């Protein structure tokens, strides 16, 4: 299917190389270790997908990456800026959408997005209003929400809310977009639009990371995938590399690799080989 979305205007507009580092990050909640010793680096314009079971530590990792959770140990660097030491500078570079994004029901979609823009751009408030208007139009159009522009958010479906949250995260032209389960509430066309927008953002230099349970999405758009299990990185690489690395075990899809690395009972792999024998 060819997407009709035109998002050629969604430019990054950077003056320097953006990159991201997570160095030795751990997170404990009381005595419980949710995430241990995470080390990874993301380059400018890369799309990285985190895949893992429920409770694997994806949301905790993403929240540490955006500065909403302070690591118990380790550092997060956004283009060299330590998010703990200089949170305002680091956070300005990031657009974030949580798995259940909080929106203000009594604002219209346009008012909410303007509000978010003003939060991120205090010092340039009221400047470049035409540019802001143009970018809002582009984003609302790209997400096929242009007819809802002036409607109250309280009347929006979950998918529409997800799109407003994505638009609000992109309005200040972040260098890094971090999204927890971007397609969770979206219909297939909206999911496709979101994937196209991620690809376009990455082409223009924006780094994108997201978590997902959907292997097809990870496989189709991610430059690299991080498989996370019980708070630890089990494997990191391009989908092709991960499949090749495990080809000895006759694993031929990212889903097989994921299950093999994260399902300690291996019951699904066993089951699939029994099915093959029965063919
Ligand atoms: N605030 C908290 N206090 C205590 N434990 C927490 C807290 N937040 C997360 N956890 C625990 O940390 C672990 C990782 O949770 P996290 O939300 O990061 O998983 P996840 O991979 O995003 O899961 P899902 O796919 O279900 O969203 C889980 O065992 C969870 O119960």
UniProtKB/TrEMBL annotation:
<dbReference type="InterPro" id="IPR003439">
    <property type="entry name" value="ABC_transporter-like_ATP-bd"/>
</dbReference>
<dbReference type="GO" id="GO:0005524">
    <property type="term" value="F:ATP binding"/>
</dbReference>
<keyword id="KW-0067">ATP-binding</keyword>
<feature type="domain" description="ABC transporter">
    <location>
        <begin position="20"/>
        <end position="255"/>
    </location>
</feature>
<keyword id="KW-0813">Transport</keyword>
<dbReference type="GO" id="GO:0016887">
    <property type="term" value="F:ATP hydrolysis activity"/>
</dbReference>
<keyword id="KW-0547">Nucleotide-binding</keyword>
<protein>
    <submittedName>
        <fullName>ABC transporter ATP-binding protein</fullName>
    </submittedName>
</protein>
<dbReference type="Pfam" id="PF00005">
    <property type="entry name" value="ABC_tran"/>
</dbReference>
<dbReference type="InterPro" id="IPR051782">
    <property type="entry name" value="ABC_Transporter_VariousFunc"/>
</dbReference>
<dbReference type="InterPro" id="IPR027417">
    <property type="entry name" value="P-loop_NTPase"/>
</dbReference>
<dbReference type="InterPro" id="IPR003593">
    <property type="entry name" value="AAA+_ATPase"/>
</dbReference>
């Amino acid at each position: 299917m060819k997407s009709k979305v035109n998002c050629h205007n969604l430019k990054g507009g950077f003056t320097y190389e953006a990159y991201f580092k997570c160095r030795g990050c751990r997170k404990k909640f009381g005595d419980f270790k949710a995430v241990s010793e995470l080390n990874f680096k993301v380059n400018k314009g890369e799309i990285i997908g985190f895949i893992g079971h429920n409770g694997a530590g994806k949301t905790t990792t993403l929240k540490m990456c955006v500065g909403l959770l302070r690591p118990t140990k380790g550092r997060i660097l956004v283009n060299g800026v330590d998010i703990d030491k200089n949170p305002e500078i680091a956070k300005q570079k990031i657009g974030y959408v949580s798995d259940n994004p909080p929106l203000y029901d009594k604002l219209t979609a346009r008012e909410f997005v303007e509000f978010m823009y003003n939060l991120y751009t205090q010092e340039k408030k009221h400047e470049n209003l035409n540019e802001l208007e143009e970018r809002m139009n582009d984003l609302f159009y790209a997400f096929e929400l242009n007819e809802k522009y002036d409607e109250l958010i309280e009347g929006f479906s979950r998918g529409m809310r997800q799109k407003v949250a994505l638009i609000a995260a992109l309005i200040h032209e972040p260098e890094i977009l971090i999204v927890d389960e971007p397609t969770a509430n979206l219909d297939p066309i909206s999911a496709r639009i979101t994937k196209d927008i991620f690809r376009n953002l990455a082409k223009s230099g924006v780094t994108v990371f997201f978590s997902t349970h959907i292997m097809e999405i990870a496989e189709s758009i991610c430059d690299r995938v991080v498989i996370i299990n019980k708070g630890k990185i089990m494997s990191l690489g391009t989908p092709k590399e991960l499949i090749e690395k495990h080809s000895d075990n006759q694993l031929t899809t990212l889903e097989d690799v994921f299950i093999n690395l994260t399902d300690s009972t291996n019951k699904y792999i066993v089951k699939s080989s029994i099915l093959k024998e029965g063919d």
